[in-house]
Amino acid sequence: ENIFDRSRMAPKTPIKNEPVDLSKQKGCTPERNPITPVKLVDRPQPDPWTPTANLKMLVSAASPDMRDREKKKELFRPIENSEQSDTPDSLQYDMVDDSTVDEFEKQRPSRKQKSLGLLCQKFLARYPSYPLSTEKTTISLDEVASILGVERRRIYDIVNVLESLHLVSRVAKNQYCWHGRHNLSQTLKTLQEAGELQYGELMTFFQHKEQDLEYKLGERKKETIPDSQDRPLLDFSEPDCTSASANSRKDKSLRIMSQKFVMLFLVSKTKIVTLDIAAKILIEETQDTVDHSKFKTKVRRLYDIANVLTSLGLIKKVHVTEERGRKPAFKWIGPVEFPGKTDKPRGHSPMSDPLPGMQRGVCAPYQICATGKQRFTRHASFNGAQPCEGTRRKVSSEPNSPRQERQDEYCSKMINLAAVCRQKIEEDARNPSITSPLSLLPVPGDSDFCVNPLPQAVFPVVQADVPSLSLPNGISSQALHPSTPAASKTENGKPTLLPNQPFLCFPSSSLFMLCGGLQENNLRETLPATGDMGNSRAEAQATVPPAACQKRSSHKCASPSAPVDDEEPAAKKQTMEQSDVPLSLVVPKKLFESPKAESAPASGCTSAEHLEACHLDLESPAAPEAADKESTKPLDSQEQERRSQNKDPDEPSLGREHISKENVNQPFLPQYLYVQPTAGLSSFNFLFSANQAPGAISLAASQLPSLSVPCVVVPSAALASFPLVCSPTITSPLSPVPDGSFSAAASMNFSMSGLASTTPVFIGTTAVVTPKVSPTPSVDPQQPAHPALHLSPVLARSCGAVKLDSPVCMGHPVTLLKLQQPSSTPLTPKSIHPARHEAFFKTPGSLGDPVAWKKNEGNQTRNASSVQRRLEISSTSPD
DNA sequence: CGATCCCGCCACATT
DNA sequence: AATGTGGCGGGATCG
Taking a C-beta distance cutoff of 8 angstroms, is the pair A846, A853 a contact? Predict the structure, then answer.
């Protein structure tokens, strides 16, 4: 048969005129000497020939049929084929000639011919990789489906993945707009950033382990999960939040999975991701029961996605040999560094932009949803509701594109990740040998603190935020704990997790990030100036829009993630660069989420409030489960963001406290400080600050080593439960602020006492600090943010600072701040504040929850109300 | 026999 | 209610 064809073909005219870029397609044709014989017109195609006929033909050529033929050919392969044979895989279709064969060919199209990968190639062949900006190519699903000869369902599979990378966007029903790869790098960059936040640690983790993931996800319960998520991922979701409702399940898997999957590659050092790991990570639910079936389904979907990505030339299939044996995996072969990326102006994610139609609303919020489980419920409400501004949405206005992303999912996924990480960690703990570079510390309730090591290890910071689940304080902790309470000690000497500790310490990383729940938005924005920007922050948000916008409609919504992504990554990167190490972030992802819900209270976040809130949180650890969780999470993320922000500006970050104080001035304060390690400094350094280190470390007290962190960390609400110790006294050169402000330089010491509640956080101004930090070249010390965190006076007051000498703190006088206990706290922001915030942002549970308020903090930024709030607060606090 | 993953049912969303 | 979307998983193929 083939022969016939061939014979015919040869003569045939080469039809392909189309410029479609076949370039990608491989080699097919070239090999053939003769020009590609294209299929001829005469092909039997049924289609009525329309103007587009050419296209169709081409397509058809490419189509499966062709493939079939080819296969056949392979089999028999007459002459010409022989040549081609070389490039079997590639898409040969071009060359195809085939029309002739059609008849026969079909006979038995092998499965391969029908593969999604091929289909995708054909699909891609129809559109230029880099279309002229001027023209817009619209894609009609029906048309394409018919042209390619497949059911529409299959087209959806392709388009959904392409959409996740912003190569196309949905314009209307049945209509997609082709964007090409112009924004691909941006999208990837965004994903990378988001991925680092979300998965960085995990991946690192896994990889370290060699990817052996033994853990079984199955067991983990949701509870464990709670925290990790954050919204970070989101990526760009285009969706506008607004339509929140829209979110529906759609956003569900494919699109999101695809993005996440890509993120895993981008975050992975090896650029190789095994299917099973990816599946585990992507399984959203808490999956306590990780049913096997679920896993299988996930894997199936990943294959679908992988096929499309493979067609795009972004990944290729490989196998990794692990302990267990060989496992299927994929290797990223796409761009790793994104040129433009480097810095996008902070803020917004590029991704959003690309999408024309999409609304990119940012829906950031989603993740935050914190509760993992529920997230599915449409957050839309929240998202859309407040956060999303109409404005944005409208802008985006699209046809109707409903798709918004449902970030919820993300949340859930995040959770899963967290769970996974957790497991790993646990495992590690058990097997010290393995130890991953990072250690986690579960943070008790507050996720606020997280220390992240940027560089290498990552682990999720999980904060236990609220473990509504079981652990009041830190969920994660429990997981960890089990293995070793002692863990704190770190098996390898690495930092470890302290069981109850609020933060995580990462050893290697050059940086630690402390995450407090803050709003990210604010953070980011504030970053720049840190200090003063009260207004700016507001502005920032406004300005930021891109970022914020993207995801969430408004700041509040703005899920931290988005911003975070952008910025943090940057920060991290910076650090990384220095270290070289990939950063791992701890991700607090949650913050964002919360905003919406709890934002109200949180919004207040002003320092004082925050603090209080924290306290509250602590006190009521679990309280509202979801709420707490969310809140906590949000905090983390916020912190991160902040941190990142801070860092950007300069190191000095603001402590929460500091913030609080400031917040009067500024709406948002960065909650945490993060310090970049200087070259000289090792991460450890951070941990163990020179000054205190000795003592701290030794700390026998609880056996917990205390850490000195160069950075100041502000406790988030969660912390509240823990006493904070601040030792301003220590050398803080700056020490300007009497109240409790700490110089930026101040290092924090965390003592990890076993008890979460008890664990005090020390903040020392100690000189130890990393060099960089204190001086911060970039920033003037003076600057607002300037160095230290200041505890807001208010807080201080309210909290009552106590000086402690904790054993831990060794010689330094430490000021311990106690957080007011919730109950005690007379003023909680929320109480003080007008309800309205609450109304908006808060969720039901939020009020009570400290956590919630944290979230809110971030949110508040945007509104004047926040300001008011502050004022009020301030006034009150004074009392 | 495990890895792939096509196929298309059917639920949910949008019109 | 009709139609668009797309989750999902049975079970066929591939290797």
Answer: yes
